[in-house]
Amino acid sequence: MLQPVMHILKQKNIVLASGSPRRKELVENIGLKVQLCSSLFEENLDPHSFKSFSEFVEETALQKVLEVENRLICEGNVPDIVIGADTMVTLGKEMFGKPTSEHEAFEMLSRLSGRGHTVYTGVVVKSLDQIVKFTEKTNVFFGKMDEEQIRGYIATGEPMDKAGGYGIQGVGGSFVERVDGDYFTVVGLPLFRLCSVLYDMYKHEILL
């Protein structure tokens, strides 16, 4: 999708406002070189102050982007493009972020076992003064897991830095019966929408 503008994008200083190697790998798999820069934003927004899950993840992603951009500018490393994302697992009206303990991971996974849930990933792409925000959501259906399976998975350590307490691209994917929507939204970066945004941002430069 990005081939017509790839020569333009390869000249840009692209920064991913994240510490996630998964997101970095996704971006590099489509042919872009990115600099990984973890945001220092505390991610302490009150989800109850937002009208929707989409607004919450988009605002969190925006704050990550702004913090990273401002810090890099102060360091003299001015980015051309900053990409930020935030992923949240929801069950009904409840929001599940990253578990803070093994006990919390167990509670999350027990709640998700044998049920469907929705994953929201909000993305912000900032290029100079242009900001584009969007959210994708995907429904994920877990098979039934017994207590030993859940504890065994937690013992791998994988759940502890993942929204909802699981990584679909890792061992956690073995619990997933089916996915309705964009798989990459669950991984943490919806590639189709991201590529569409980047293409629209730079397609006017193709003939320049």
From TrEMBL:
Signal peptide: none annotated. One of its GO terms (molecular function) is nucleoside triphosphate diphosphatase activity. Pfam families: Maf (PF02545). Its cofactor is a divalent metal cation. It comes from Arctia plantaginis (Wood tiger moth). Keywords: Hydrolase. This is Uncharacterized protein. The keyword Hydrolase applies. InterPro entries: ITPase-like_fam, Maf-like.
